[in-house]
Fold:
Amino acid sequence: MTWLTWRQSRAQTIAAAAALTALAIVLAVTGSSVAHLYDTSGITGCHPFASCRTLADAFTSKLTSTDAILYGIGIAVLLLAPGLIGVFWGAPLVTREIEARTLPLAWNQTVTRTRWMAVKLGLVGLAATATAGLLALMLTWWSSPIDTALSMGTTSRLNLTRLGPILFDSRDITPIGYAALAFALGVTAGVLIRRTVPAMAATLAGFAAVQFAWAIWIRQHLFAPVHAIVALDPANVFQIKSINNNMSISAMPNFTEQGAWVLSSQIVDRSGHAAHVTTSRVCLGNNFAACQAWIGRLRLRQIVSYQPASRFWDFQWAETAIFVGLAVALAGFCTWWIRRRVA
Amino acid sequence: MTPVLHTQGLGKRYGQRWALTDCTLSVPAGHAVGLVGPNGAGKTTLLNLAVGMLAPTSGTIEVLGGRPGGNRAQLARVGFVAQDTPTYAALSVADHLRLGARMNPGWDAALARGRIERLGLDARQRAGKLSGGQRAQLALTLAVAKRPELLILDEPIASLDPLARRQFLESLAEFISGRQVSVVLSSHLVSDLERICDYLIVIVASRVQVAGQVGDLLAAHRKRTSSKSTLEDLVLAAMGPATDTTLEARR
Structure:
């Protein structure tokens, strides 16, 4: 069974290996110059934080446009790769045999259906996750100087913290978990739908939904957030609304913990309760600066809830474990389904 | 001796439609069994139940005394050539033999190689490039070289031209002769079966109408009709509206 699985997936495995090798060469060449630029930038071991920021900005401004494009492509590749693995490796795994009517041939050799499915899932799944893992390893190495500089610098408009929705999904080990789940999702869709193209579409839609929902709504709840109380800086107030003589103030938190993933902030009074501010006449006029100054005199505070940057690896391991666990559960379901619901 | 095929009230339903109903059969070992019936009568369903590709809706089925497709031992004892003789289009003839050798502990490499050589197949040729007849022969090779006790073939020659048909049946007959192997071969053409089968099962409209040894069935039929009656007449009589003949012959 191992031989047949290898023989059937040989072409795509070799193609994937060739693509990875080509990418490795491109990344090694361009990555070493980025790494050199970073090593000579003085960012490593810089102190205090303000000087780091200057050095980081200087480093990012020196990057070539090719580097910038490669950095963007790298993120896109890692965000898309798991879904594509599910679509092109997972979904056709069984449907191809259903459509070519080769199941009666495969299932009448001296190999049980359970073993047939387990070997296929195991070997092809391993190839798929290894591809994602190597891709993530190479691109994480290539991008890490830029990631660090962007998380320190001021120029970043994307607010790319390593824990944030974009970088977290495309760095270190999470792509392995994502690829495993996408692959298992593809096989499951194939086993249930039994036709390649609809199964591919279902896999793409299903996995994109999981990836999106996870990053936006679910990940932040994996660990209870940390709360910090900071003084409200009136200069950070960007919007004031008055509703029923009550002022609602919106302000960026005056919170500079490096790399933290800020989830929410709430304005409170000195006793720590949600602030109720009666609308002042100062703020009804057009003088926004005067209003800000008036707010400053209230000595309000902000409760910031956030995930500290130090939890990066906790999140990485937890998320990878959850996704691999889900993938294994789906693989078990596929095997059970194949054994029970027959051709 | 354990019957090769033993069913009790066997039935298979797809949604609302029964593809096979109340099928009770006991086929003794050592026969070449012809399974005849019009298209859609339930032949493929019965054979797929016999290899475990399908699970019964009602009743029981035992093949060589075991549950179809249940475990490796059972799989090793039954060879199956499915309808349209599937092969892996992208794999070469040699790859198919390697597949057989890797996936069957009882694989007879000499038998497989000998057959491929006698058929004049190019080992490097991809199965997808073979003619229908060659593909059927390759599928048969895979099924026989695992050295099964029971060989099940589902309309293997339905889509072949007359020459390929004859060659296939000849090579099947050659494999059977002198071996302790039982065969079940389905077809909608009696003439295909006449040459090799000594046992006959007729299925019409999802029910078994006739089952028995060809000699016995013919003798009984000739007694009732004319001494010149052929197997074809017998089958046609069974396929027609239920007559005394078919009712009596049912088991």
Remarks:
- DSSP finds eleven helices and six strands in chain A.
